[in-house]
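<instruction>
Derive structure tokens from the sequence

<record> Sequence and structure tokens follow
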Amino acid sequence: MPSYQPLQPENDPTGRGQHEPGAKVDAGKTRLDLVLGAFANALMGVGEVGTFGARKYTDDGWLSVPNGKARYSDALLRHYFKEQRGEIIDSDSRLHHDLHLAWNALARVELRIREEQEAMTALQASLPEPQPVPST
């Protein structure tokens, strides 16, 4: 099961029953505010890397790069090692190497998730249609 599914059974964090007024069964669901809010500065920087890449290549062109996971892994490592050698700013984009590293990590994760979703869709499409159970 993918790790982005609810972490525990859903319930109302205030103890209300699901059908009581004011109930919201969101306990146990992923809290994206912890990422989007807490990492606002970092995500703005990663967005700058994405914008740089779209200007240099094409919007969303990274989704079509052959062998993308491996190539973005290599790019991630190149930025990591440049930073480890003391080069903080990428000479091409003029953005921090760690922002490029983060963008490449997100690209790898997104490509993996999409591959898994495509595989699941193909598997489901290959399954025979359910047959009605004959009544006795």
About this structure: The longest helix spans residues 97-126. The chain has four helices and no strands. The chain has a mean pLDDT of 90. Helices lie at 33-36, 40-56, 68-84, 97-126.
